[in-house]
Structure formats: C-alpha cells, structure tokens
Amino acid sequence: MYGLIHTALRDMVIETYGPEKWDKVVTKSGVTADTFLSMRSYDDSVAYNLVGSTAQVLECSAESCLREFGHYWLTQAAPKVYASLLDTTGDTLFEFLESLDDLHDKITLTFIDYSPPSFRLERLSDHHARLHYRSQRQGLTPFVSGLIKGMEQRFNVSINVESTEEVAVSEGEYTIFEITVSQSHETS
Fold first, then answer.
1. Rounded to the nearest 10 degrees, what angle do helices 19-29 and 3-17 cross at?
2. How many domains does the chain have?
3. Could you give the CA distance from residue 64 to residue 69 in angstroms, rounded to a whole number?
4. 177 and 113 share one domain
5. What pLDDT tens digit does each residue of the chain (188 aa) get?
6. Which domain holds residue 17?
C-alpha cells in the first residue's frame, strides 16, 4: 500500500486520540519510521502491522479500527487529496458507487503498480442496492464498510450497510454489501 494510506492512519490517530497514542502504535508495530512518502509503495505488511497495533493501543478490534479508518478516509483524508476526483464521481450515493472503478482507474495513472479493488453496484430499488467488492488483499471489508458509512456526510443521507456475504475466492476477498438509503439527514 502507498504511504498516503499510512499517513492518513497516523493523522486519524493523532487527531482523534493524540500524538502519544500514535507513538505507542509505532513502537508496538515495529515499523521503523512514522513518516511516509505519499507516493511510495510500501509492503502491505506495514499497513497491516499499523492497523493491528492501532487496534491494540486503542483496545478495540481490528475490524472496528478499520471501519473507523474507512470513515475517516472518506470524510477527511480523501477530500484533501482527491477533492476534484470525488466531486466528479457521482451526484448521488448510487451514482458514486457505480463509478468507483472509474475513479480508481484515474488514480491508477498516478501510482506505479497500483492494484485497486473492484466494485460493481447492483441496484435493487431507488433506496436499496448490493455492492460487490473484490480485492487482491484480504481483511479490508470493514474498511470498505466504513467508507460507505462515510458517504452519509458526502450525500446527506442515512445509510444502513451490512456485509451480507463473503464469497470464497482463491486470492484476496470478495464481499457483497447490502446498502439501504433510509432517509435524508435534516439540515440546519
């Protein structure tokens, strides 16, 4: 994974829990540096070690840590780096989800050896859909769940998201999410 991800995880921990927690994460993880080059590719084990150590330091499950990070990524980190791409990906939640592969194709031009996940949206009604998520990596389904929940703020809707089926694959993971848009948030 790229340093951009590691930096966003660091920022989330520092902003939410304080710099001393991040120092503990770095120490526990065994990662030799706590600053990362955004465009540099690091072995996936660095990210997995940082997430695992973050979960231990924050005394939560890795899944809950990944969900929180997914939410943070979509609401805080990605808009700083990819604002224009996000703004042109879709005007509604389902349009956005349908365009995720196109968004990742555009990002692919920026990174060397980038292997993005793949998404396919199956619309069941105006308020209900299934999102098929495939990745060469394992264990990131909770991160995707957090990303989807983060879209509540982006599209001013309430979203119920459930990981309903994990499909067996020979490599990586394939998860199907049930997504229901239940209501709009009231604006003040």
1. 130
2. 2
3. 9
4. yes
5. 777 889 999 999 999 999 999 999 999 998 877 667 666 678 888 899 999 999 999 999 999 999 999 999 999 999 998 888 888 888 999 999 999 988 887 777 666 677 889 999 999 999 999 999 999 999 999 999 999 999 999 999 999 998 777 887 888 999 999 999 986 655 44
6. 3-60
